[in-house]
Amino acid sequence: MNAKIIKDPVHGYIEMEDYALRLLDSPVLQRLRYVRQLGFSFLVYPGANHTRFEHSLGTMFLADVACRRFQLPEDEHRLVVSAALLHDIGHGPYSHASEPLMEQYLHRTHDEIRPVIDTTTAGVLAEAGVDPETLSQVVEGKHPLSGIIHGDFDVDRMDYLLRDAYYTGAPYGTVDAQRLIRHLIRYPDGTVLDENGVNAAESLLIARTLMRPTVYYHHVSRIGESMFQLAALEHCAGMGEEEIQQFLRFDDAGCMHSLRTSENPVSRGIALRLYERRLYKRAVYAGSDQINPATWQEGITLEKSRDLAAQIAEKAGIRAEEVLVDIPPIPREMSLGVRVQSRNAVTSFEELSPRIRTLNMTRREQWRLGIYTVPEHRDAVGDAACEILHIKKPTRQDTLF
Question: What are the HD/PDEase domain coordinates in residue numbering (predicted)?
Fold first, then answer.
């Protein structure tokens, strides 16, 4: 067996078997070297320039640890490791920032990797005895082994929490990934957690909760994403599906170059603002106690956000492109399907960990609806947005800026 060692700042030395190394060298994976893991979070955290390529390596490493823990046969082991390595090749530029564009124009998400697997990658998989169709099912969560990559305690999440905390410097993403994996027991009807792993599992759930407002939903990151999405929408207006597909297959640099040289003046202007970090500001930043949560339970589409932005802009007497509406889905309850095995019985995780109720309450309290605009129009846009969206004005709006 040929193997190569790669040094990773998060997990240390990662051993690559020959088939995994050849997958790593495929064009679809090499492209991920140039796609930022955290989209526009580098506008907040200068160190957040790590890429989907690094994350794919880390996810593969933890998947290998899990496969060895579960003592999977060689064919299943290769399938899961390959799926972990390729699970993010469907991402567009700036990762999750382009996901709504992909859903609107291409009617798919980044987990649907079938259209992205090229002949080179398919050939390497075939030589390794891995069926590309089966691998796609694992990535999409439609296979009995999917839980290793997409589950309650999956290796994808373990790696990105550790990696994102490392590169942002946020002290909240600490997860003892290998301890957690060591205490997972795989049965034919699902995965069970040994009671000695409860603390490690709780640390993962706490890390997810604390990283949401400080990293994943930081308002500056959301503003950057919203500006990018508007620039991309304007740029893609009137394009055919093939041109849009090509645009969404760019890496970050290629995408930004297209926007900065776009024929559309709105796209060019917003892309330049992003490049120079002249960002829009918060006109409204409302919690769930200021709105009717049922109205925005599922969040809104890009199309709906632009419709609302146009209404707010008209009432404020400014141009539609000077208003951005950001309404993410209200977080769903975390309800873990993992059971816990003690000496005497198997019970639900929630029974042994009442912290989940507190974490669910915290996640709801963290949710924010954002209305952003250019600095000189904040007051007018804030008043218009509160009227149109029926938002209760906060008592101390000035504390947001």
Answer: 48-170
Residues 6+ apart with CB under 8 A from 379: 283
Is 17 inside any structural domain?
yes
Q: Which residues contact 311 (CB under 8 A, 6 or more apart)?
A: 388
Alpha carbon distance 231, 221 (integer Å): 15
DSSP letter assigned to residue 26: S
Q: Which residue has the tokens 């952003």?
A: 372
Contact call for residues 230 and 271 (beta carbons, < 8 A): no
For residue 88, pLDDT beyond 60: yes
Per residue in 41-66, is it b (16+ CB within 10 Å) or e — as a string? bbbbbeebebbbbbbbbbbbbbbbbb
Sheet of 339-341, strand order? 184-187, 190-194, 339-341, 346-348
* CATH code for position 151: 1.10.3210.10
Residues 150 and 284 in one domain: no
- Domain count for the chain, please give it: 2
Structure-token pair, residue 316: 């404020």
Q: Give the full edge-to-edge strand order of the sheet including 281-286.
A: 281-286, 369-373, 323-326
- Report how far residue 120's alpha carbon sits from residue 354's, in angstroms, rounded to the nearest whole number: 49
Tokens linked to 125: 């998989």
Task: Please give the residue range of the domain that contains residue 321.
Answer: 280-330+367-401
Half-sphere exposure of 208 (CA within 13 A, CB side): 18
Mean pLDDT for all residues in the chain? 92
Domain limit, last residue, from 169, 192, 217: 169
Residue 398 banded pLDDT, cuts 50, 70, 90: very low
Taking alpha carbons only, the member of 156, 155, 149, 166 closest to residue 50 is 166
The residue type of 178 is: Q
Question: Is 303 a member of any domain?
Answer: yes
Q: What CA–CA distance (Å, rounded) separates 2 from 18?
A: 5
Take residue 390 and report the two structure tokens written for it: 């029926």
pTM over 0.90: yes
What length does the chain have? 401
Tell me the helices (H) and strands (E) count for the chain, helix number first.
Answer: 18, 9
Q: Which helix (H) or strand (E) holds 387?
A: helix 378-389
Judge whether 358 lies within some domain: no
Q: Which residues contact 65 (CB under 8 A, 6 or more apart)?
A: 155, 178, 181
